[in-house]
Design a protein that fits this description.
The chain is globular. The chain is mainly β and 237 residues long. The N terminus is likely disordered. It has 1 helix and 12 strands. Strands 6-5-4-3-2-1-12-11-10-9-8-7 form a 12-stranded antiparallel β-sheet, with no helix packed on it.
């Protein structure tokens, strides 16, 4: 009888301990800001990409380019509105046998609910926080261009590009607009947690609308651009 009583008391204590909801015992969220760590702006972070690009100038006239791109997250600065941004140096080279050459300087910042990238002096809202696949936003909210409504396609799911699988990734559909006759604007970006951009796939083209080629899906002008991550790390490693 004594043994049974001791067993019952031990069971009660165990149940009580499991039900303890003290904050100190709680497991912290992996990403408490729900997506900000995907827009990775840690200083000295670098990302390298293979780039495949087709520039269309007229029907049957185009230029195909293949090169490499490197992004380096550099020091921060504060603009006139008191917002802190990171400098993003963008370097290019034809192949891995050549030295990197500075191509352009962008800037990026994370505000309370927005991730903003300033690309060739054009500010664009890359995403909103917290991430929710039901949310929509205008990527051109701050630049005066026509509205382009973006959305999340998925969040915290595996994604494979080439031979690399990222266990926690998100896909952003920047634009998916087409009238099937005169133009296509399909833009997608994929980000990995604590890395940043791993894939950019853009196709913004005007289709031939002359009588002899109307409805034949023939590109007249525009660009196809694909950027694929091949390496990343920190400059001081």
């Amino acid at each position: 009888m004594r043994i049974k009583l001791l067993t019952l008391l031990s069971l009660i204590l165990l149940i009580s301990a499991c039900g303890n909801s003290d904050v100190e015992d709680a497991i912290p969220a992996l990403d408490p800001d729900l997506g900000k760590s995907y827009f990775f702006l840690e200083p000295n972070k670098y990302r390298e990409y293979d780039v495949y690009e087709i520039r269309y100038f007229a029907v049957d006239i185009s230029d195909t380019l293949e090169y490499q791109l490197r992004e380096e997250i550099r020091e921060s600065f504060t603009n006139g509105s008191g917002q802190e941004s990171r400098i993003v140096n963008r370097l290019i080279r034809n192949n891995d046998q050549e030295p990197w050459q500075l191509d352009s300087v962008w800037a990026a910042r994370v505000e309370s609910e927005l991730a903003i990238s300033v690309e060739n002096n054009l500010p664009m809202v890359k995403r909103v926080f917290p991430v929710d696949t039901t949310r929509r936003w205008d990527i051109n909210q701050f630049n005066g261009r026509d509205a382009v409504i973006s959305k999340f396609k998925y969040f915290n799911e595996p994604y494979t590009v080439r031979l690399n699988t990222f266990l926690e990734a998100m896909e952003v559909e920047i634009s998916n607009i087409s009238d099937l006759i005169t133009f296509r604007d399909n833009r997608t970006e994929v980000y990995a947690d604590s890395i940043g951009l791993v894939l950019k796939d853009y196709e913004v083209v005007k289709l031939c609308s002359r009588q002899e080629c109307l409805g034949q899906n023939i590109v007249e002008s525009g660009r196809h651009y694909r950027e694929t991550l091949i390496a990343h790390g920190f400059l001081d490693d």
